[in-house]
Amino acid sequence: MDRVAPSLELSGSLGVVGGPPGRPDRDRAVAVASDRSLQSGRQPIRFANHTSYPAKIGDVLQDSVALSPQISQVQVDRLDALYRLTDRLYRARSLSDVFDAALDAVTVTLGCRRASILLFDAAGTMDFVAWRGLSDNYRRAVRGHSPWTPEHHEAQAIYVVDIDDTDESEAVKAAVRGENIRGLAFIPLMAQGLVVGKFMAYYESPRIFADYERDLAITIARQVGFAIERARAEEARRKFEADLRESEERFRLMSEHAPVMIWMSDASGRCLHLNRMLREFWGVADDKVDSFDWRVTMHAEDVDRIGRETWDALLRRAAVQLHGRYRNADGEYRILQTDARPRFSPDGEFLGMLGVNLDVTERERADAQRELLLAELNHRVKNTLAVVQAIAHQTFRGDAARAEAQAFEGRLLALAAAHNHLTQAHWENAALEEIVADTLQSRGDHKERVHVSGGKVLLKPKAAVAIAMALHELGVNALKYGALSNDAGKVELAWMPAGEGGLLRLVWREQGGPEVAAPTRRGFGSLLLQRTLAQDLGGKVDLVYAREGVHCVIDIPAAMVSAF
Amino acid sequence: MNALAGKRILLVEDEAMIAVMVEQMLGELGAEVVGVASNLDQALALCATVVCDAAVLDVNLGGAAVFPAAEVLARRGIPVVFATGYGHSVIGPQHLCHVIEKPYTRDRLARALAAALPSQLLPSP
């Protein structure tokens, strides 16, 4: 829209500048004449922007315009409208209250029948939020029409004397004329220094705006802008509070219905909140949580320890994990595992602890049961091995079979020893170190002649048994024919990761023993080494009867190793 | 092996085949088996009465633990070697001293018994 920038001095300019020639319209007449009540004030009231106020207008016009008592009443009405606006904005409970009050003030003070308020919506489109006397068609046609964008810091009011005198598009002009509008005022509404919208005044005839009207318009705009800002802040606060309430309620519900026990204590360890599951566990009524003392439910044997750990956590304001027995509502002791964390206010004050209890009674019972079963199984296996040993003992009685009997017993014991290690680790894995120590322990006399080196490696059960048997065979062979069969020989056993893919390499190297000749017959030992290891483990065995001593390299695939 | 020569040993073992083998092992070691029990009742009776230098007790006697019999021997001041398939963890700390795991060799048995028996190098008080 065309900006009618120069402020119109009413003195002698009525009907000359901007407006169409002819008789001043009603509004102008009112504007001019309303000064009657103030005409005795000789000095014009000046404001910072040097706008002249009605006193001056009165001075200027007193000779040329006849003033009537009714007009002075209009002036009073305008002041009254401003007071009323201030009061209503002060009391406004919502944005629509603000708009209502603003439209009343605009129509009365700017002497128009029609007015509207538009605000930028979320998409930045200037849209009608309140109006008087405008058709739907008109609002649709000019919606989004704005001299300003939401980024504007400085926005000046725009006064259009006559829409026909502007550069607006024919479409806009047609819409405005179609609504029987000629004169318009665009007054920006500011909030927090930015344009948030505008209010509009509409006139059926061309309209010239007096300075004091412009000041009134600005005054109304500032008040409304501030009220909008306040109402929006209030709305945001209400929404925030509602969100907070909703979120608190949501968390309360989650806590109430969680399948674990949740509690909250103050800084001294007293109960502030117990969720449904925990109230039911202890049989605490909803309204008795404050006075409930959980400490009396502790098992007598746990009181000292849990009390100490709890106090320590409260004093250090630190997270704590507890494990103990508590008496439930049925008088039964249950094992609860507690995980508690300190709570702090936003400014760092220690508020107490927030904890979760898990009833692990069944789980621990099942664990114990499993332990028992495993121990029982191990016992049976070992007993059976002992029976097998006893049978062999009887079968191979007599000196002729003595060597075979001993070889058999050695293998049986190697197997049993590997089982032992596996049982201790619940048949999950066995440490290679321990298997080696065990196998070499049976030839303890030669300890200083066997050099062992290698890091910590956990073998899977199948590998553990196979390696134990293999090492047993190598050891027995060394003792009978190899490096341990004389006084000078040495054995070196080492393991290390080999190549890519987590392969484990075991190297057995004998030195200093009697000169080695490859055996003429493939005994059980080499069969076990080359067949069992290679086949069962999918590994690779390289057994060389070198002249200086037996040299055996065993590669164990990563799949057979639990951890390096 | 000399340490066991002539020693009187009480054997508690519920597996007959194993009992025979252990008897033979002890015989080979020069010791004398003065009684064999295969259940807890027999064990309690023998432990209370048999005169012996040491006892080899199987921990699990057909589901019953041998410990009451061990208590009887302990009161009589008779040293004990436990033989078990359970491993050390099942036996309480008061019994921790002499435990051998089944199956065991004759040498292992000999070492355990020698360790359990009061040292003969020390003069009696």
Structure description:
- The complex is a heterodimer of chains A (564) and B (125).
- Chain A has 564 residues and is an alpha+beta fold.
- Chain A has helices at residues 26-33, 54-61, 69-91, 95-109, 136-142, 170-178, 211-257, 276-282, 303-316, 361-395, 402-424, 432-441, 461-480, 524-537; strands at 114-120, 126-132, 158-160, 183-191, 194-203, 261-265, 271-274, 320-327, 333-344, 350-359, 430-431, 450-453, 458-459, 490-498, 503-511, 540-546, 549-556, 561-563.
- Chain A folds into four domains: 26-235, 2-Layer Sandwich (Beta-Lactamase), CATH 3.30.450; 258-359, 2-Layer Sandwich (Beta-Lactamase), CATH 3.30.450.20; 363-427; 429-564, 2-Layer Sandwich (Heat Shock Protein 90), CATH 3.30.565.
- Chain A is built from 14 helices and 18 strands.
- In chain A, the strands form four sheets. In chain A, strands 2-1-5-4-3 form a five-stranded antiparallel β-sheet. A five-stranded antiparallel β-sheet of chain A has the order 7-6-10-9-8.
- In chain A, strand 9 (333-344) and strand 10 form a beta hairpin.
- The two termini of chain A are 81 Å apart.
- Mean pLDDT of chain A is 83; it is low at 1-66.
- Chain B is an alpha/beta fold.
- Chain B has one domain: Rossmann fold.
- In chain B, 34% of the residues lie in helices and 22% in strands.
- Chain B is built from four helices and seven strands.
- Chain B has helices at 16-28, 40-49, 67-75, 106-116; strands at 8-12, 32-37, 54-58, 60-61, 64-65, 80-84, 99-101.
- Chain B has a five-stranded parallel β-sheet with strand order 2-1-3-6-7, sandwiched between helices. Chain B has a two-stranded antiparallel ribbon with strand order 4-5.
- In chain B, helix 1 (16-28) links the parallel strand 1 and strand 2 (32-37).
- The longest helix of chain B has 13 residues, at 16-28.
- The radius of gyration of chain B is 13 Å and the shape is globular.
- The chains are: A alpha+beta (564), B alpha/beta (125).
